[in-house]
From TrEMBL:
Sorted UniProt keywords: Cell membrane, Glycosyltransferase, Membrane, Transferase, Transmembrane, Transmembrane helix
Protein name, UniProt field: Phospholipid carrier-dependent glycosyltransferase
Membrane topology: Multi-pass membrane protein
UniProt organism field: Amphritea balenae
Compartment annotation: Cell membrane
Any single GO BP term: lipopolysaccharide biosynthetic process
Domain of life of the source: Bacteria
Record carries keyword Hydrolase: no
Gene Ontology MF terms in the entry: pentosyltransferase activity
Residue intervals passing through the bilayer: 20-40, 60-78, 83-101, 113-132, 139-155, 161-192, 204-222, 253-274, 286-304, 310-327, 334-352
Domain Glycosyltransferase RgtA/B/C/D-like span(s) in chain numbering: 62-222
Length: 495
């Protein structure tokens, strides 16, 4: 072994956390560089959430408020640039990685901590989600913080840790309603461990749970004021396409998890888990952190449908389990193989256009993961002259996607576009907060992909086509929309 490698090993042994922080910093800078240099423009959900951020509230149409609050903070500091809108995502995942490190260090040792943190950082789901601000970013962060505070409170029984756990739990509930699955971890842990049963007998545990739930009360009141619209939407998403039980959907969901966590690490912990029952109390606790979310989402996939990323919080536990097991074996070949494969997934996604150009592969509608993002700034800009010509006309549309993209990319920005609905059923935040039927505006610039002048005359007294624009994205795919000047809203015709 060379003197240089000996020094590197000694540095790792003496300062593993410093090295881990360096790894986080490098990945954070790299991911920000990808966003800026590619560039990774806004997905319409991000533009939609940015609209929420303009009016911070206790709830929104489809989600609790945390993602809107987070974007409000980053854009208040750095402005509305795309990278600033997205900034909360890499920050949350970086902080979550630190908490995973500290959790593994507290439960096992620094070697398991470094491995668990690295596995989480290089997880394909984290690599992908670090480029886009979604509800998963604060959900994962507060999940990690709450669990870390719980294990510290379990050992010390100090009020400060119980309070941190309660606050983190409450903020987690305000991030995404699926956070309610985290307490199931401790119920499962109690079923397999005497230490877990002792935890449930501690009144401070239950006080903490009540504290966490109390954070949800303002959101519940907001929902009460809006006919529990968020829960209606969540239920509809969960039951969508519910026709019959499907093993095919379940198999597809399980297969997708290989690309969520990474095939090497997922196969490894599955095989290791099947070979022996968890023996140590730490094993039982970490597996309990994984199974509830994974089982619930698997049942959801079997009975209706579940996107492969919905089980994301389960892989906090999976990262800790993998790091725990891998720290006990000699050598690093399996770790290196797993990290390299996950890095290849990330790099091929981050630099998709460069990779496909190098391989001579033509990007088309069915083969480009960036299809839904590409061309929107250029497309919206094609309509800019008419918005400048009619500055007193309000942006309106029958499409959430168009309201979100035009609201962000048009100048001046307009995050309160007016929504036209074909019926009285509320389908998005624009229809909830800015419906055409309640608008005091009289004149509109109406952007649509679907409606022609004949259909619009059913809603408006005056309809004038200003322009129809098309932008070719690929040889087999283009974006098109028509812009109308409309006025004299007549109401929604009876169906």
């Amino acid at each position: 072994m060379s003197a240089e490698s000996v020094n590197t090993t000694e540095a790792f042994i003496k300062h593993p956390f410093r090295l881990f922080l360096g790894l986080i910093f490098i990945l954070f800078c790299y991911r920000e560089w990808v966003v800026l240099s590619t560039p990774i423009t806004l997905f319409y959900d991000e533009a939609y959430y940015l609209g929420w951020a303009q009016t911070p509230d206790w709830g929104y149409y489809s989600k609790p408020p945390m993602v809107g609050w987070l974007i409000a903070v980053t854009t208040a500091i750095f402005g509305n640039a795309e990278w600033a809108v997205k900034l909360g995502a890499p920050l949350c995942y970086s902080l979550a990685a630190i908490l995973i490190y500290k959790t593994a260090e507290f439960l096992v040792d620094s070697k398991a901590a470094f491995l668990s943190g690295a596995i989480f950082l290089f997880m394909p789901l984290v690599a992908f989600n670090s480029l886009f601000i979604t509800t998963d970013a604060p959900l994962i962060f507060f999940w990690c913080l709450c669990f870390y505070a719980f294990i510290r409170a379990r050992q010390s029984n100090e009020w400060q840790w119980w309070l941190i756990a309660g606050v983190a739990g409450g903020l987690g509930l305000l991030s995404k309603y699926t956070f309610i699955l985290l307490p199931v971890t401790f119920l499962l842990y109690a079923a397999f461990s005497p230490a877990g049963r002792q935890l449930l007998l501690n009144p401070r545990f239950w006080i903490t749970c009540v504290l966490a739930l109390s954070f949800l009360l303002p959101n519940l009141y907001w929902n009460y004021q809006h006919d529990f619209i968020s829960f209606q939407h969540t239920a509809e998403i969960s039951h969508q396409d519910r026709n019959s039980l499907s093993f095919a959907r379940l198999a597809e969901f399980w297969g997708g998890q290989l690309f969520v966590f990474g095939p090497v690490f997922l196969i490894y912990i599955v095989i290791r888990g099947l070979k022996r029952q968890p023996k140590s109390d730490t094993e039982k606790l970490l597996w309990s952190l994984f199974w509830p979310t994974f089982i619930v989402l698997s049942l959801q996939a079997f009975m209706a449908r579940a996107n492969i990323n919905w089980a994301g919080p389960a892989y906090i536990g999976a990262s800790l389990v993998a790091g725990y097991y891998l720290s006990q074996i000699k050598g690093y070949r399996l770790v290196i193989a797993g990290l390299i494969i996950n890095m290849l997934f990330a790099v091929s996604f981050y630099h998709y256009s460069t990779v496909t150009d190098a391989l001579g592969i033509e990007r088309k509608r069915g083969s480009d993961p960036y299809k839904r993002l590409l061309g929107w700034p250029e497309f919206v800009n094609q309509f800019q002259p008419w918005f400048e010509q009619y500055p007193d006309h309000k942006l309106a549309s029958d499409s959430r996607k168009l309201l979100a993209y035009f609201g962000y990319y048009i100048a001046p920005q307009d995050f309160k576009g007016i929504a036209l609905s074909d019926d009285n059923y509320i389908e998005d935040h624009y229809e909830l907060k800015y419906p055409l039927s309640a608008s005091t505006e009289k004149n509109f610039l109406f952007i649509t992909e679907a409606k022609d002048a004949t259909k619009l005359r059913q809603y408006f007294e005056e309809v004038t086509l200003l322009t129809e624009q098309t932008l070719a994205v690929y040889s087999n795919f283009s974006r098109s929309a028509r812009l109308y000047k409309v006025s004299g809203f007549k109401g929604v015709p009876e169906q």
